[in-house]
């Protein structure tokens, strides 16, 4: 920051809105220009959000900020899909391991 510049505070809802736009695929540079905020501020918010949510939850959400309920639902769906895949692999293994 230059001389005379102050560190500007942003509302948490504003931060969430900006991060949601980035998660939906809007370029951070364009969002920064549109809202008149430094692009490095957006990257810092994303980094902080990743840290708070945990990298796994952040990645699973596609970079979107999820509520605890949404995260739990997504994790349960992923677990169910993984179990189905495991069961299919067990069946395939038993079929292919039989002697002709």
TrEMBL record:
GO molecular function term, any single one: DNA binding
Q: Which GO terms describe its biological process?
A: DNA transposition
Q: Which Pfam families match?
A: HTH_Tnp_1
Check the UniProt entry and state the signal peptide residues, or none.
Answer: none
- For this entry, the protein name equals Transposase
Q: Which organism is it from?
A: Aminivibrio pyruvatiphilus
């Amino acid at each position: 920051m230059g001389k005379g510049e102050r560190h500007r505070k942003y509302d948490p809802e504003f931060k969430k809105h900006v991060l949601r736009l980035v998660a939906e695929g809007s370029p951070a540079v364009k969002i920064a220009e549109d809202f008149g905020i430094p692009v490095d501020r957006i990257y810092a918010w994303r980094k902080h959000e990743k840290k708070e949510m945990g990298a796994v939850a952040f990645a699973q959400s596609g970079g979107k900020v999820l509520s605890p309920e949404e995260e739990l639902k997504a994790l349960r769906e992923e677990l169910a899909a993984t179990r189905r895949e495991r069961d299919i692999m067990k069946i395939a293994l038993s079929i292919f391991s039989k002697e002709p």
